[in-house]
From TrEMBL:
Cell location: Cell membrane
Residue stretches making up the Major facilitator superfamily (MFS) profile domain: 16-421
Alphabetic keyword roster: Membrane, Transmembrane, Transmembrane helix, Transport
SUPFAM superfamilies: MFS general substrate transporter
PROSITE patterns registered for this protein in UniProt: MFS (PS50850)
Protein name: MFS transporter
């Protein structure tokens, strides 16, 4: 048993988490900064809407594609090193973006930004697993995801002001300097583990890469991935791309009213995240059922809205955005599930695989909605009407159905795995006691 040299879940843990959270907040800010600068970017690079969307799509593709290799590197080098690497990548990318004069250079900068962004979130989640008590982890995990999102929206206001007052290069250059400050904070404050041994596996990269297959063989990893996949894509697609056009072009709202509803979504994730973390902590055996319940709520609300052949009343749209927003906190349960099935030394790989789920679903849904809209109405964004959006947004049901089936499938396999490998774990969770993985070899998952 490694020697514990720092308290778990106490003052030092919170200090480390706050610094890591600041890095995640910055990552989300960089990720979403083009939403504020989109129109200016279109003028600066003389591009159309399709090319503008390439910035976001490529950035998310790189982010999702990097999750497995980043998970491998995370288990080899630890959260501190990966947070520092992520900050270096993001800072360099924003500096390059600030001075970009051509579209190809700017696209390359956003791709590098996506690579740096990919290193941050699962590094923070690994720190949560190492530094907090098992009863604290669900709440801290929820706070990590939701505070990061809210902070990015708050931070967008200064960037919008800077773009108009200082100009493109000065605004993005100034934003990049925050990364340098956080590099110093991470280097001084963050430690990988409260134990004398760091919790980092001193294994060659080739062996770690091969072990991804082993971690993937654990049904808990797949249960976590599908629990992230199924509730996360709807709020992501709505907030990042299709929600605003649906509300304005499909529902006839003013741009101000549509923006207010999107801001309401962001506020609701805090409240719903706290409720879900409370439920997950007290009902550990039913975490996957909680996810399915949230997905059912989202799908039911969308069904009521999409069955209408006229615009929905405002109260129903408020219910829609609140129900949809709950999918964000629900997707965080996937990381808590993976943590129950995975020893700490393999958690980076498991979290990387889990994190692929929601982003893969979001990219596929964004693309399919756009394809359906183009097939129905080739006239472009200004020609879309309510019927076009009703048809296009029905593609969500495909992914909800696939996801729920897979959650049920791997819930059954996961419980069988725990009964076989960890006798008494299921009975413990039935009593409302969280299961703490004893740190056995991850080969147990095959």
């Amino acid at each position: 048993m490694p020697q514990q040299i720092h308290d778990i879940g106490r003052r030092r843990a919170w200090a480390i988490w706050l610094v890591a959270l600041a890095v995640y907040l910055l990552a989300v800010f960089h990720r979403s900064s083009l939403g504020v600068a989109g129109l200016i970017a279109a003028d600066r690079f003389d591009i159309e809407a399709t090319q503008l969307s390439l910035f976001t799509v490529l950035q998310l593709l790189v982010y999702a594609g990097m999750q497995v290799p980043v998970g491998v590197l995370l288990d080899r080098y630890g959260s501190r090193a990966m947070l520092l690497a992520g900050l270096v990548f993001m800072t360099a990318a924003q500096v390059a973006f600030a001075f970009s004069e051509s579209f190809p250079t700017a696209v390359l900068a956003r791709a590098v930004l996506g690579a740096g962004d990919a290193m941050v979130f699962i590094s923070v989640i690994r720190l949560v697993g190492a530094w907090f008590l098992v009863r604290q982890a669900p709440l801290v995990t929820q706070l990590t995801g939701q505070v990061g999102q809210v902070g990015a929206i708050i931070a967008a206001a200064p960037l919008s002001w800077a773009l108009h007052e200082l100009g493109w290069t000065a605004a993005f250059g100034l934003a990049s300097t925050v990364g340098v400050v956080l590099m110093v904070a991470v280097a001084l404050v963050v430690k990988d583990s409260p134990y004398a041994a760091s919790g980092i596996t001193p294994v060659k990269l080739r062996a770690l890469a091969r072990s991804v297959q082993t971690v993937w063989g654990n049904p808990g990893t797949r249960l976590g991935m599908w629990s992230h996949f199924t509730p996360q894509f709807s709020p992501t697609v709505f907030a990042m791309l299709w929600g605003f056009p649906f509300l304005v072009r499909g529902q006839g709202l003013s741009t101000g009213a549509a923006s207010t509803l999107l801001m309401l979504m962001t506020g609701w994730v805090i409240i719903s995240g706290l409720v879900l973390s409370w439920l997950v902590t007290r009902l550990p055996l039913y975490r996957s059922w909680i996810v399915i319940g949230v997905v059912g709520l989202i799908a039911t609300t969308w069904t009521v809205v999409l069955l209408r052949d006229t615009a929905a009343p405002m109260w129903l749209l408020v219910v829609l955005v609140l129900a949809t927003a709950t999918g964000g906190p629900a997707s965080m349960v996937g990381f808590d599930l993976a943590r129950s099935f995975t020893p700490l030394e393999s958690l980076g790989r498991a979290n990387g695989l889990v994190n692929i789920g929601g982003f893969a679903a979001s990219l596929m849904t964004m693309a399919l909605v756009g394809i359906v809209l183009d097939l129905r109405q080739p006239g472009g964004m200004n020609a879309y009407d309510l019927d076009d959006f009703r048809a296009a947004l029905c593609v969500q049901y495909l992914f909800w159905t696939i996801g729920v089936v897979q959650i049920l499938r791997y819930r059954h396999r996961g419980l069988a795995h725990l009964r076989r490998v960890h006798p008494g774990a299921v009975e413990s969770m039935k009593r409302g006691e969280p299961f703490v993985h004893p740190g056995f070899s991850d080969r147990e998952g095959v």
